[in-house]
Design goal:
One of its GO terms (molecular function) is RNA binding. This is Pentatricopeptide repeat-containing protein. PPR repeats lie at residues 149-179, 180-214, 281-315. InterPro entries: E_motif (IPR046848), PPR_At4g14850-like_plant (IPR046960), PPR_rpt (IPR002885), TPR-like_helical_dom_sf (IPR011990). By secondary structure, the protein is mostly helical. It has a domain at 351-454: Tetratricopeptide repeat domain (Serine Threonine Protein Phosphatase 5, Tetratricopeptide repeat, Alpha Horseshoe), CATH 1.25.40.10. It is built from 27 helices and 2 strands. The protein has a two-stranded antiparallel sheet with strand order 1-2. Helix 14 (216-229) packs parallel to helix 16 (251-263). The longest helix has 18 residues, at 435-452. The radius of gyration is 31 Å and the shape is elongated. The relative contact order is 0.03.
């Protein structure tokens, strides 16, 4: 029997795997060569660790990383502070079904005394955070043998943000001994996501004052806040920062800038930013199309929609809502009918209430009240305020009293205190010369407002003898 070949040490033959992100096919080939060469049979955990690191760079590392990790355990190769965190991260990304497997790795960390290593503990915090087990994540964080580092704090803060506990995330942030750009980006994005728009902008300003350079997350979040607040000047200031630090901004920043200018009515600036974007996704197109449509540039919005389809970008519900709004503003009823008809059959986009509401408004504006009513009758769901409101507006414009009364009844069922419905009906009756109905509807409105505002007040008076009288 021939003696075994003398192989070079594994760390001399595999390190290129750590320097490059290999595609799966080449990585599997390298793995096979390592196995054939006997690297994986030696009593050395380094070859397995190198391969685990390489597999962890894949988009879906779960099966390969854990199989290699299990192979280490079967060969009695102790997990290391490098391999165990990667195994924990892979198991965490595998979903709830594999949570017991992920939790077992916590036991491995305890048994092998690897918790004192910061990145092992951080991986466990991330594991529990990912599965919204915040009390467990907090316990690991607080029981770290060494003081938590900035990654530990960021991971815990991100967990609270993802579950909507922005106030707790802010407490964690304020208690950090050291912060980095990720810390600021997480708390700013969390505040923006929670609708705390002014607070997010204030945090962004504070970050700049403290000398931190904002990351893409912070910039995208504050651009979104400026767009929602209509804070054009602040948005332009942020755009200036983007120009200075990012010659080729990513798709998220481009989308945020297009959305900012489009929402603020600066359509030419929005188009300029859009055309300069190196990468665009459906959200970038949506921001421009909806912005153009909302500001009355219906024909231009439709041109961009046709470009979007020609470029192979698949429209979604927001895109088609913008297109319907554009048709409404441009008076393109036939095109709107075709788009609405083709939503599910051609674009594979389900019709939602917002699409029906837009069509009701469009048909109502065009005086096609009966067509709008037929559409509502065939809807697979009950109409909401937008659907019936669109019909009522069309009836007021074209004097259709019977349909207006039906729309008003539905609107008052949805919101009995909506005084706008009473006012609209009073106007419709007045235009039709039905003055008795005008008096009746105004009386009904007055009675409802009085009932809604019924209240009492009390006055306390101190008499000369010190007695308190309540009236």
């Amino acid at each position: 029997m021939a003696p075994p070949l003398s192989l070079p040490p594994p760390h001399h033959s595999l390190p290129h795997l750590l320097r490059h992100r290999l595609p799966l096919r080449r990585l599997v080939a390298a793995h096979a060569l390592a196995a054939v060469a006997g690297h994986l049979s030696l009593p050395d955990p380094r070859p397995h660790t190198i391969l685990i690191v390489a597999y962890s760079r894949l988009e879906r590392p779960f099966p390969a990383v854990l199989l290699l990790f299990r192979s280490c355990l079967r060969r009695s190769l102790a997990p290391t502070r490098h391999s165990l965190p990667l195994a924990i991260s892979a198991a965490a990304s595998a979903g709830l079904r594999h949570l017991p497997l992920a939790l077992s790795l916590h036991a491995v960390a305890v048994y092998r005394n690897l918790l004192p290593f910061q990145h092992v503990a951080n991986a466990l915090v991330s594991l529990y955070a990912r599965h919204t087990r915040l009390s467990d994540a907090r316990r690991v964080f607080e029981e770290m043998p060494s003081a938590p580092d900035v990654v530990s704090y960021n991971t815990l803060m991100h967990a609270y943000v993802n579950t909507g506990s922005v106030a707790v995330a802010r407490e964690v942030f304020e208690g950090m001994p050291v912060r980095d750009a990720t810390s600021w980006g997480t708390v700013i994005a969390g505040s923006a996501k929670a609708g705390q728009l002014e607070e997010a902008v204030a945090l962004f300003d504070r970050m700049l004052e403290e000398g931190f350079r904002p990351d893409d997350v912070a910039l995208a979040a504050v651009l979104s806040c400026c767009a929602q607040l209509g804070a054009l000047d602040k948005g332009r200031e942020v755009h200036g920062l983007v120009k200075l630090s990012r010659p080729r901004p990513n798709v998220f920043l481009c989308t945020g800038l297009v959305d900012l200018y489009a929402k603020c009515g600066c359509v030419e600036a929005a188009r300029e930013v859009f055309e300069a974007c190196q990468d665009r996704n459906v959200y970038t197109w949506n921001a421009l199309i909806v912005g153009l449509a909302m500001h009355g540039h219906g024909t231009v919005a439709l041109e961009y929609f046709h470009r979007m389809v020609a470029d192979g970008i698949r429209p979604d519900g927001v895109t088609l809502l913008g297109v319907l709004i554009a048709c409404s503003h441009a008076g393109l009823v036939d095109l709107a009918r075709r788009i609405f008809r083709d939503m599910e059959s051609v674009h594979n986009v389900p019709r939602e209430l917002k699409h029906y509401g837009c069509m009701a408004d469009l048909l109502g504006r065009a005086g096609l009240i009966e067509e709008a009513m037929n559409m509502v009758r065939k809807m697979p769901m009950e109409g909401d305020n937008y659907v019936w409101g669109g019909i009522l507006a069309g009836c007021r414009m074209h004097g259709n009293v019977d349909a207006a009364e039906l729309a008003a009844r539905h609107l008052l069922q949805l919101n009995p205190d909506d005084s706008g419905v009473y006012s609209a009906m009073a106007g419709i009756y007045a235009a039709a010369g039905r003055w008795e109905d005008v008096v009746r509807i105004r009386k009904s409105m007055d009675e409802r407002i009085v009932r809604r505002n019924v209240a009492c007040s009390s006055i306390t008076t101190e008499l000369k003898d010190g007695t308190i009288m309540l009236s």
